[in-house]
Amino acid sequence: MPGSNPRFLEKAQTLPVDEVFLDLEDAVAPLAKEDARANIVAALREGDWTGKTRVVRVNGLTTQWTYRDVIEVVEGAGEFLDAVMLPKVQDPTEVVWLDTLLTQIEKTMGFEVGRIGIEAQIENARGLVNADAIAGSSRRLETLVFGPADFMASVNMRTLVVGEQPPGYTEGDAYHYILMRLLMAARMHDLQVIDGPYLQIKDVEGFRRVAARSAALGFDGKWVLHPLQVDAANEVFSPSQEDYDHAELILEAYEYYTTVEKRGAVMLGDEMIDEASRKMALVVAAKGRAAGLARTKTFTP
Ligand code: GLV
Ligand code: MG
């Protein structure tokens, strides 16, 4: 949500989303940046963000705005903020800079040191090549975020439609390498990994198609730019009822067979399950529980 638009900052509080980020970067015009900082501080302090992770995206380190963004927002509303998003990260030292600044502000203000997290957007070739080092650069780092619009511009990908396959690329998925690369860097350091925006906001089916690809690989979520995209995102990133039931059944059956019958590889219907199946089932079950799904099947030995 652009920090320059107080109406949107109100609206954001009513949406069924897991996280809201209030933007000072590319959704805010240069002349509106200073007012946007004050709007964001007020919205964080006065708004009702219950159930949502509260994040502010500051400007990137090649601009003149970053330090004031961080200082004004965190001094003004640090107790009401969960993480700072740093865009266009190219190098681990950028994250270290933000970590150090946050620590100084937390000490000055008497806040708990280290509570505020960092999300790093990877948006160009240098950031992607350095993704492993960036992912390991700070204990505050929680999430790597793909920035497809800036990324496509930076590598000269020949399309203007963010997230869609570039015309002429007829086989495979032009984003596969990038998404996989980010997924590996994030998981190597136990971070979340989030897919970026889909700009054709009226084309919900297009959003769903693009979101399904990163969800299938294992991404934890995707940005939404408009209320129209929210339901589709929640749906795509939650397991289906069938998969959720299946996962809970695997967990229950595996528990029964390994403890009561003391067997490690067993049959559940027509499929063989073992310790690795349990791990896969844990991921799906955790996502289903987080999405509020209820079981419709129970295990009987
Ligand atoms: C998001 O910041 C993007 O560049 O896609
Ligand atoms: Mg960007």
How is this fold's topology laid out?
Elements: H1 6-12, E1 19-23, H2 33-46, E2 53-57, H3 66-77, E3 83-86, H4 92-109, E4 117-122, H5 125-129, H6 131-135, E5 141-146, H7 148-155, H8 176-188, E6 192-195, H9 204-217, E7 221-222, H10 230-236, H11 241-260, E8 266-268, E9 271-273, H12 275-290
Parallel strand pairs: 1-2, 2-3, 3-4, 4-5, 5-6, 6-7
Antiparallel strand pairs: 8-9
The site of glyoxylic acid has 9 residues, from helix 7.
Structure description:
With 301 residues, this protein is an alpha/beta fold. It has two domains: 6-236, Phosphoenolpyruvate-binding domains (TIM Barrel), CATH 3.20.20.60; 241-290, no CATH class. The protein has twelve helices and nine strands. It has a seven-stranded parallel β-sheet with strand order 1-2-3-4-5-6-7. The longest helix is centred in the last third of the chain and has 20 residues, at 241-260. The chain binds glyoxylic acid (GLV) and magnesium ion (MG). Glyoxylic acid binds at residues 87, 121, 123, 147-150, 196-197. Glyoxylic acid is lined by residues 87, 121, 123, 147-150, 196-197.
Gist of the model:
46% of the residues lie in helices and 13% in strands. The protein is of the alpha/beta class. Bound molecules: glyoxylic acid and magnesium ion.
Average pLDDT for all residues: 96
Number of domains: 2
**What's the helical proportion of residues?**
40-55%
Number of strands: 9
